[in-house]
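I'll show a record.
***
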Amino acid sequence: MPQPEALSNLSPAKKLLAGLLTLLVLGAGILALAEGAVRVRAWIKYGSADHFDEMYYYDEQLGLKYVVPNYRTRTVQVNSIGFRGPELEVKSESTLRIGFLGGSTTFCAEVSGNDQVWAALLSANLQSAFPGLDVDYVNGGVPGYTLEQSLKNLERRVAPLDPDVIVIYHASNDMTGETRELAKESGILREFHRDPSWLARHFLLWHLAEMNLKILLVKREGDEQKLKLFPDDFGAEFDQKLEHLIASAQKVAEIVVVVTWTQQIREQQSPAQQLEAASSGLYYMPFMTPTSLLEAYGRYNTAIRNAATRTGAILVEEENSIPGDGAHFNDTVHFKDAGSRAMADRIARRLLESPRLKALVQKKLLNSMEKKS
């Protein structure tokens, strides 16, 4: 950087150039410090100083995104076969194995550690209830998965591990796809690039600024060109695909559980609270409003209930037993630790009152005793 004495001997043009160079150096330093700060914050909050996709790999042959085996951060640990959670022991007569199918809300990257993922918490609840069994689990949730991808995941990766119980939690990713198609057909889906720019892919600070700007723009848009009305058959395809996934899971496990969808946005909230709670949902579905999001979630929950009734799957309801606030939700749909615990509790309550689970546990205990004798 030029010294003050040297600047006095420069021409006006060179002084201007030196000043610009000084500003550039200072600006770069400030940006570097800010980038470092947001990465430290990310590491503290998520256990990783990055936001990129090093956690995943794509199998071209199977057409599925997988979690990288043995992936590790401070808060996320993936086992050697690519599932978030501990290593699986050889299954015995006394093992009650629970399989989970879903997307990012089942994977739970936002909670503080593997022990706070609701799949792990539910398994721990059941272990406490049945101390004579060895309860373990397979968290087959992968961010971005829809019902179709979970079906492939079930067939190729979860079923071979022989789960006794399968828990299915799906809605948001399928709903995003269906509403985007409706918005296209209605001519109201403007050019909205959800994928990050080159700068956002390489700098976390830029990524956060870009994402927040998109959310701010969506919040400020009027409702005139938003998707408000849904056709009578909205959610029908989801209903059919869910029924197929349940039927496929029932060929694998003795008990299949389907969980209604929960989200931070609620009908009783004020318009300002709804808009804030809907932020990440509006980021992925900028053509929606808080009101239309609520209706869409409600329609999908009706489909979940109907599919469970037709197939005889155990239905877990009480979706609003998880408070719709920032203490329980990280954004519109992803849980913080408190929300994850509440999610595990609502499923445990339903399962522990189920005669089917009690019968399965008794059978396992009896088989285990007979084998030992």
Observations:
- Residues 12-46 form the longest helix (35 residues).
- Strands lie at 56-59, 64-67, 95-102, 134-139, 165-169, 255-259, 314-316.
- Confidence is low (pLDDT under 50) at residues 38-49.
